[in-house]
Amino acid sequence: MSVAQVVAPTPTVPREGMRAAVHDAVVIMKRNLRRYQRQPQIAVFVFIQPIMFVLLFRYVFGGSIQIPNLEYVQYLVPGIIVQSVTFSTIGTAIGIAEDLKNGIIDRFRSLPMAHASVLAGRILSDTIVSILSLFVMLAVGYLVGFRISTSIVEALAAFAVIVTFTFSFAWIAAWIGLTLEEPEAVQSAGFVWLFPVAFASSVFVVPATLPGWLVPFATQNPLSRVSDTVRALSIGGYPCGTSPETITFCTGVGSNLLYVALWCVGIVVVFLPLSARGWRRLD
Asked: How many CA atoms within 13 Å lie on the side-chain side of 138?
């Protein structure tokens, strides 16, 4: 009688190499996107909230907000798109916290996969959802009177700026999710600091019309820089100035685009290592 050969199980160690990491990130991305198929109510909320913001500021507040030499809807839509895709990154933090609470992250960590792909896949999937939300808002913007007045190349450049900023900003959300770990705490903490950043910016009003002590912060605010860059690329310019009396229509893109690039690089340089440290802390 033959004796069965016993084969030792292969250790489940993470695979190495960029190709394996990219493959694993794509798998995680697909897994996260399937969640929207199984729970369509989440997708509805993701798309309904931006539409409500557009309609609210277009028809409720728009009549009382005056923009020099520019119809308010033309000023509003680029800014509110930036604000909405930025707010959508809170979903990244909540998703990571939910996976931590449900033990899914522990399961991923036990599999022979690149660990960095778990965070990368989450951020990629949420960036795709943000892009879909962007198109929904753009369609609603057209219905309420917004029109792109620049070339197709400039419009595509505006799209690239929004996507790049959303991707970099998502690393802040990833760090928040890994640090707080509780979905309820993540949701509260995420919006507490985002609301002042969004409303003290050029998203809804020209910074020069704000109180003098707030103008420098609103001008250098990353959401202001991104919003003004998108306006310059989509409608040909944006109102600028340091006081209501000095507001003019600026058409340049270069300086704002440089600031946007610096903000994106700075956010990634700071929060990607912090997220990696938070991931290692789970060991």
From this structure: 16
List, for residues 17-26, the tens digit of each pLDDT value. Answer: 677 778 888 8
Measured CA to CA, the distance from residue 152 to residue 263 in angstroms comes to 25
Other Cβ atoms within 10 Å of 24 Cβ, number: 23
Q: pLDDT digit string (tens) for 65-86?
A: 888 778 899 999 999 999 988 8
CA 150/CA 252 separation, integer angstroms: 13
